[in-house]
């Protein structure tokens, strides 16, 4: 069986490991049954590994200190209509009582 070339670096030295293909040169792993993903598509996952999209509603899973404020963002706070952005804080949203904020996806869950 001929393994496909790496979609990132085009290396021909890829190998199969179970259902995944692995490139030893750039360490990229992919599943060939899924269509190739566009490189400009932003992929953001919540704390449980669910994919997030613009407009989703999320719930805060940990009490978070708000920089520049004495109040905290409490666990269980619902955030509606998120927008995904690049960077360390990859969720841009508006929270009632706090205003515009940026959150890390690792502190929210979808739903």
From TrEMBL:
Q: Which stretches make up the Protein YjdM C-terminal domain?
A: 44-110
Q: Which residues form the Protein YjdM N-terminal domain?
A: 3-31
Pfam families (UniProt xref): YjdM (PF03831), Zn_Ribbon_YjdM (PF08274)
The UniProt entry's sequence similarity note says:
Belongs to the YjdM family.
Q: Fetch the NCBIfam families from UniProt.
A: phnA (TIGR00686)
Q: Which InterPro entries match?
A: YjdM, YjdM_C, YjdM_N
Instruction: Check the record and name the PANTHER family matching this protein.
Output: PROTEIN YJDM, PROTEIN YJDM-RELATED
Q: Enumerate the SUPFAM superfamilies for this protein.
A: Prokaryotic SH3-related domain, Zinc beta-ribbon
The lineage's top-level taxon is Bacteria
Name the chain's protein.
PhnA family protein
């Amino acid at each position: 069986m001929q393994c496909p070339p790496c979609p990132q670096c085009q290396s021909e030295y890829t190998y199969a490991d179970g259902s995944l293909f692995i490139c030893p040169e750039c360490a990229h792993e992919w599943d060939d049954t899924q269509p190739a993903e566009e490189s400009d598509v932003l992929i953001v996952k919540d704390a449980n590994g669910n994919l997030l999209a613009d407009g989703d509603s999320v719930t805060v899973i940990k009490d978070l200190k708000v920089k520049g404020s004495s109040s905290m963002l409490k666990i269980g706070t619902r955030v509606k209509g998120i927008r995904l952005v690049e960077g360390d804080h990859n969720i841009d949203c508006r929270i009632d009582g706090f205003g515009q904020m940026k959150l890390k996806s690792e502190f929210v869950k979808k739903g």
